């Protein structure tokens, strides 16, 4: 990677989220917990999700995580947790869909900054296929934890 590529890939906002991650640390209560590993680079995340409200219209009360790995992966977890906390599951789906589509675009989609906030800084990684998995891993972990959380909410309402 050239120094120009590194400059466009690692922005100040990424370094800030890496050094001072938001919502890091595993917390209770939670309905869903998942552990994901990126075998190509060794990044890991354990993510917990806590939902409140009725099963047909839940709200993301908390996203907590423990992430190890590269700065891109850890910053992505921080940005994602900050974006999704307090959102309805429906709104969170819009946010995560938009982010993941932009990451899959290989730099052709600049992303909707209004929708994905600070995570727009991660989109530079979409030009580097090896980095996409690092950035998207926390978002995939969120989706898996959401499945568990919704199942637990449904069982609690039954």
Can you offer a commentary on this structure?
This protein is an alpha+beta fold and 158 residues long. It is globular and about 45 Å long.
Please describe the topology of this protein.
Blueprint (H helix, E strand, L loop, with lengths): L2 H7 L2 H8 L12 E6 L6 E9 L6 E10 L2 H14 L4 H16 L8 H4 L12 H29 L1
GO molecular function, one term: iron-sulfur cluster binding
Pfam families: NifU_N
GO biological process, one term: iron-sulfur cluster assembly
Question: Which properties best describe this structure?
Answer:
single chain; 158 residues; alpha+beta; Sufe protein. Chain: A; three-stranded antiparallel β-sheet; 3 strands; 49% helix; 16% strand; globular; disordered N terminus
Please tell me how large the radius of gyration is: 15 Å
| CATH secondary-structure class | Alpha Beta
Report the biggest beta sheet as strand number plus sense, adding barrel if it closes. Answer: 3 strands, antiparallel
Please state roughly what percent of the residues sit in beta strands, choosing from under 5%, 5-15%, 15-25%, 25-35%, 35-45% or over 45%: 15-25%
Strand order of the largest sheet: 1-2-3
Give the SSE order as H and E letters: HHEEEHHHH
C-alpha end-to-end distance: 54 Å
Level of helix content? 40-55%
Query: What is the approximate shape?
Result: globular
CATH architecture: Alpha-Beta Complex
Strand tally = 3
Mean pLDDT rating: 91
**Number of domain units:** 1
Task: Tally the helices.
Answer: 6
Structural class: alpha+beta
- What would the CATH topology be? Sufe protein. Chain: A
Any low-confidence stretches, pLDDT <50, length ≥5? 1-7
């Amino acid at each position: 990677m050239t120094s120009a590529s590194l400059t466009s890939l690692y922005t100040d906002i990424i370094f800030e989220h890496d050094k001072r991650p938001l919502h890091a640390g595993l917390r209770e209560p939670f309905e869903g917990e998942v552990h994901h590993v990126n075998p190509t680079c060794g990044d890991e995340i354990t993510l917990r999700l806590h939902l409140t409200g009725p099963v047909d219209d839940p709200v993301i009360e908390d996203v907590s995580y423990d992430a190890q790995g590269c700065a891109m992966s850890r910053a992505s977890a921080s940005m994602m947790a900050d974006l999704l906390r307090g959102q309805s599951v429906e709104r969170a789906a819009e946010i995560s869909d938009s982010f993941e589509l932009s990451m899959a675009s290989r730099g052709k989609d600049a992303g909707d900054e209004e929708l994905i906030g600070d995570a727009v800084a991660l989109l530079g990684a979409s030009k580097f296929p090896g980095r996409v998995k690092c950035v998207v891993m926390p978002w995939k972990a969120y989706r898996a934890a959401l499945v568990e959380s919704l199942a637990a909410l449904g069982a609690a309402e039954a």
